[in-house]
Task: inverse folding
């Protein structure tokens, strides 16, 4: 294994990825709350990784006597198929897989929802505890052997876009 390959995804690697989720839950009107997300990944094979994920957001709406909020906590597992090196072989081209890591992610988990607000608001029950799943296409760009930025697009936790950092521990 070359030193360059050690920077990209590989079997036996271990990483953590904190970030934020953008794209909203589909609430109408104005509200505040930035979803915080984090995941871990262990390289099972050179093209397959798996690990836990967690997300948290508290959306606040209204003002004065009409103030209410939803709090969501989501936990689950994810599996990632890393295809940069396969794409390089297929295209017979160098996509810089030592720095670029492209993948598809499948997420399966459970979301808890809680509500606080004025008596019987019309939004009560709009969201509830439930199982959830997601599918995303993502990519990481490594600035160094241990640090990358990442972006994921698709049906992910609370919105359609995750942005953050990846720290490679092993």
Result:
């Amino acid at each position: 294994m070359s030193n360059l390959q050690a920077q990209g995804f590989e079997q036996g690697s271990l990483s953590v990825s904190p970030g934020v989720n953008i794209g909203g839950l589909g609430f109408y009107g104005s509200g505040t709350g930035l979803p915080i997300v984090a995941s871990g990944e262990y390289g099972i094979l050179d093209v397959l990784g798996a690990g836990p994920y967690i997300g948290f957001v508290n959306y606040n709406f209204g003002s004065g006597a009409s103030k209410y909020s939803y709090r969501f906590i989501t936990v689950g597992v994810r599996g990632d198929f890393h295809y940069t090196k396969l794409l390089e072989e297929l295209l017979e081209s160098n996509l810089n897989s030592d720095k670029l890591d492209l993948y598809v992610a499948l997420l399966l988990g459970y979301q808890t929802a809680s509500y606080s607000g004025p008596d019987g608001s019309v939004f009560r029950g709009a969201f509830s505890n439930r199982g959830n799943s997601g599918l995303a296409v993502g990519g990481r760009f490594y600035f160094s052997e241990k640090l990358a930025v990442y972006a994921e697009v698709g049906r992910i936790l609370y919105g359609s876009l995750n942005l953050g950092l990846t720290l490679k521990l092993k």
Summary: The chain has one domain: 5-168. Residues 91 and 109 are 35 Å apart (CA to CA).
